[in-house]
Amino acid sequence: MMVLLWLGALGSWLFVVTFVLDGWTRPGYSPVRHPVSALALGPRGWLQTANFILCGLGITAGSVAIADTLGSVVLAATVAAFGVSLVASGVFPMDAMRAYPPGTPDETPVEVSMRHRLHDWAGVVVFGALPLAAIVAAVVLPEVGWKWYSALTAAAALAGFAAFGQAWEQDRPRTGLVQRATIVVGWVWLGFLFAYAAG
């Protein structure tokens, strides 16, 4: 169980480290404007695709141990849904748009592929399951500190998801930054949750 929990923790934290470093060093990519998912496009897109899939698998594996160590099947199920949807986000990459990869028209296509729609649906589950997991953790975990940390994470993640959705629809110049802030808050909390469960 300990190995699974640390796989979950590493998957959570490694996901953040990978997209931060890749986004900073990717030619033609703007971490401030473009979403993390756009890193799965272009010649180096395999790196973010692997990031989605491998980290999602690690988190999903870790969720199995949460049910046993923290005694909550509901918490384990929400974390598992998050992990599986992260994998799906890698299997179904978004379409090229908004000037990335370089040479792509700087606009949002009127029509998108089924692959892109599947990516969007997976994203809704990703950004919905994580705050739900934090809410469940705030209820089931016994320590007051963890209850508060989880509740604040849930509130911040929900607010961030709403802000990102609005920024994306309006193609605001700091859309990527809003999404990154939301991801860092949620994924770091999840990594610490796995570490806490590992004791």
From TrEMBL:
Membrane-spanning ranges: 46-66, 73-92, 121-141, 148-168, 180-198
UniProtKB keywords: Membrane, Transmembrane, Transmembrane helix
Pfam families: DUF998
InterPro entries (alphabetical): DUF998
Domain of life of the native organism: Bacteria
Record's protein name: DUF998 domain-containing protein
Source organism of the structure: Micromonospora craniellae
